[in-house]
Amino acid sequence: MDRPTGVTILAVLHFLGAAAYIFAALGLFALGAGGAMTVAEMPDLDGAAAFLLGLGAVLGFILLIFGVLSLALGIGLLKLRNWARVITIVLVGLGLLLSALSLLGSLLSFEIGSFIGDAIFVALQGRMLHYLLQPHVKDAFGVS
Question: What is the C-alpha separation between 2 and 75, in angstroms, rounded?
Fold first, then answer.
């Protein structure tokens, strides 16, 4: 069976996300390297600077892991691997839950701009989840 167009679109979104994660990680690593040279030149800086540099390195590493995961999911979706579909369903479901909570928060705080943005995210994630559970999509992944 041919790959559904929506699956290709989701794979491309994973690739774009992977690029963003990896570039952000590299930026944090570069920022940390520059900060480390500054700290080395200024021995009077306290431990807070070292802590922040370490925190940046840890965050960069986490972003790098997310980038590799997103890249793997994009490849898995392109190759119609069901594990990639299932992990994407879980991630979209978690994103939908968090976006719904954010939507509720912006509704309760009367922030119209945040409410509109959150509503758009809830609608998009709900549509992605609905799409990935469609029979023709499941059939493409070999799931009956």
Answer: 16
Which of 75-85 are b and which e, b meaning 16 or more Cβ less than 10 Å from the residue's Cβ? ebbbebbeebb
| Whether 94 contacts 128, CB under 8 Å | no
pLDDT digits (tens, 9 = 90+) for 41-67: 666 666 666 677 777 788 889 999 999
Report the half-sphere exposure of 64 (CA within 13 A, side-chain side): 11
DSSP state of 112: H
Q: Is the dihedral of CA 14, 15, 16, 21 positive or negative?
A: positive
Are 115 and 107 in contact by the 8 Å Cβ rule? The answer is: yes
Contact 131, 6 (CB under 8 A): yes
17-37 per-position pLDDT tens digit:
999 999 999 998 888 766 666
Which amino acid, residue 114?
A: S
Q: Tell me the one-letter amino acid at 10.
A: L
Per-residue pLDDT tens over the stretch 103-130: 888 888 888 888 888 889 899 999 999 9
For 26, residues 6+ apart whose C-beta sits below 8 A from its C-beta are: 60
